[in-house]
Prior knowledge:
Blueprint lengths: L1 E6 L4 H11 L4 E7 L12 E4 L5 H11 L3 E4 L6 H6 L1 H22 L5 E7 L22 H14 L4 E7 L2 E2 L10 H10 L4 E4 L3 E2 L2 E2 H14 L3 E4 L6 E2 H11 L7 E4 L19 H7 L6 H12 L1
Parallel strand pairs: 1-2, 1-4, 2-3, 4-5, 5-6, 6-11, 7-10, 8-13
Antiparallel strand pairs: 9-12
Helix pairs in contact: 1-7, 2-4, 4-5, 6-8
Amino acid sequence: MKKILITGSNGLLGQKIVYALLKRKDVEIIATSSGENRLMEKSGYKYESLDISKKEEVEAVLKKHKPDVVINTAAMTNVDACESRKEECFAINVKGVQNFVDVIEGNFKTDLHFIHLSTDFVFDGEKGAAYVETDEPNPLSYYAYSKHESEKVLQQSEVKWAIARTIIVYGIVDNMSRSNIVLWAKDALSKGQKINVVDDQFRAPTLAEDLADGCILIADKGATGIYHLSGPETYSVLDLVYKVADFWKLDKSLITPSKSNTLNQAAKRPPRTGFVIDKARKDLGYNPHSFEEGLKILNAQLK
């Protein structure tokens, strides 16, 4: 029986991983997040409150449960907040990973498989094409810097690691604390609110269930190294929001195209990302839904 410990289990991806693993009989699940458990389903797994920025908590939880796999989805992901709260961002995104590395190297040798989530934002978006795993990162924001630093912590460690980079994740969860672009656009347009949407940033929207499956495939196969896990198609953010409006038959005239430099965002974003996901398809059997299919799945869940 393989023991899988998930950090950030209250978040969108963390919840999807827990729910996907609950359908299986061959794994033992330890869900961890800071604070109370926010999942509606409370049975079939163990829950521990864990602040990964505190090494003694990481050590206590790992020694108590002795997992075979850790999937680290815990992160400070609010890109603009990371600019103003750099210490907090570094403590969670970098020191949190360092804490795991220190404890694993000190107590678990290299048997424990550590799977870490990262982001397309490690790139500067100037390539003009989709990124492969071997492309050179060049982070533009403090959030992106912190995620790149966390990747380096693993790469320089003795730990058996895998890094799963992804791009704007959408989906619905229990007791949602933060929205995502699809739900935000749907919600605003449903209420007849006008929204400004950038037409000069390009992303590949990723269904949370697909990303969860990708992470679990890495765990099942014991895969190591970097994997790009995203949706299969890249759109401008404007086109993405137009597709959301079309799908739910909402008023597109409420959407005003705008440029990134007019938004007064604290953090700089890469203009164009998007991933080549061939490696994940080939090595893992990763097979993500199209955006259209993803919206259908989301719609069924909303009902």
